[in-house]
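User: I'm new to structure prediction. If I give you an amino acid sequence, what do you actually give back? Let's try with this one:
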Amino acid sequence: MKPVLYGSLWLAAGIVAGAAAVETIHAQAGAPVYQISLQNVTNQDVFSKEFVPAARASIKQYGGQVLAGSKPIAIEGAPSVTRVVVNRWDSLDQLKKWHASPEYKKARQIGDKAGKYQIFAVEGVAAQ
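Assistant: Good question. You get back a string of structure tokens that encode the predicted 3D arrangement of the chain. For your 128 residues, that looks like this:
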């Protein structure tokens, strides 16, 4: 009877340890980070045909996700930019790695000919 009891205890301990490990991994994942880009486009042709495809390819390559991008729609006050983009990243480190990447730097050289940009990161809220 003792081997069955010990086996049952080890099984229960393994289940508890596994559940705790899964919970720890979920807690470490944390909330996403959102990148907000405020853009004043001065050359729409270069912007849409050259910069956007290169920038979006680099975002995808580095694990980001484009969520929105358009002319801002005024709800209160007048927009100070011609375009707003929102990208989602799993972490601030991931966003920074993309921003420093050679792929984005190359895209940005094109983008600098098409407008001016401000880029911010905001932390998301963990799912409740």
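You can read the tokens as a compact description of the fold. Here is one thing that stands out. Residues 19-28 have pLDDT under 50 and may be disordered.
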